[in-house]
Amino acid sequence: MIAQSPATRERRLWPAAAVLGSVGLGLLLAAVLVGLTVVGRHGGGPVQGFDNRVEAWGIDHRFGLVGAAKVVAFFGDAPKLGLLVAALTALLLLLTRSVKSLIPLVAFLGGELLVLLVREVIHRPRPPTADYPAPGAVPGVHETSFSFPSGHSVAVTAVLFASLGSLALVRRWVWPWVVALVVSLFVIDSRLVLGVHWFSDVLFGLLVGAAWGTAVALVFDPLTWDDLMVKRSARGRPTAEEVEGAHLASGSPASGPPDREADRPARVGPGYGAGKVGPPRR
Questions:
Q1: Rounded to an integer, what is the distance from CA 45 to the centroid of its chain?
Q2: Over the stretch 114-160, which tens digit does the pLDDT of each residue have?
Q3: Which residues fall within 8 angstroms of residue 3, CB to CB, at 6 or more apart?
Q4: How many CA atoms lie within 13 A of 276 on its CB side?
């Protein structure tokens, strides 16, 4: 196998970062656009009537899922989910030593950042059932932050699609994608069961999370640690490791020009010591 030069690795790093940045920016703009045109900056947009009907139906059809929904709400909360993701990342680093161990962490941080930035613009209030003791609210539930998009839906879906999607790409399997979708659907349903989000909050949260998680999985798929650790000297000149790698890639020796003095034969004769090189003794 031909060694990959540092310049080649560098060309793979920055396009990968550019792709993730572009996807993140695109999702942010799309979410803000949907928020302003469909949801309404302060709620009450064209989708509100449909959301009201879904909320009313959901309150009467919780099907005994409140307990499970509370568990999802507890572990899907940003601080607790962050700790779980950090622990998963550390475990994967320990077991695999692979750069792909960073995938859950990148997916989580990107998803939470998207939610934070969108909510800086879209100030949609929660449903009335999000704050107990309002009529129809679940005891112990108090959600008062902005509603669009659902943070649980975005973050959990992003981590699931990135982590399981990476496994699917490596193993060439389909079922991890299916598992990621099914679990994500259960997560968004749990938010409706508790009455803490409108349907459009969780639906668009699912779409954003799935898109971001899939992008993270695809971008990280060809990367290695070398792609993230390209070294340069202080003056911008190639380091010794880079020179050696370039020579290995081209198949040429890494040594400099030949030493002509070393190749010159020793002069032995009168006035010279036997086997010694130097000026004659006078």
A1: 32
A2: 999 999 999 999 999 999 999 989 999 999 999 999 999 999 999 99
A3: 245, 248, 249
A4: 9
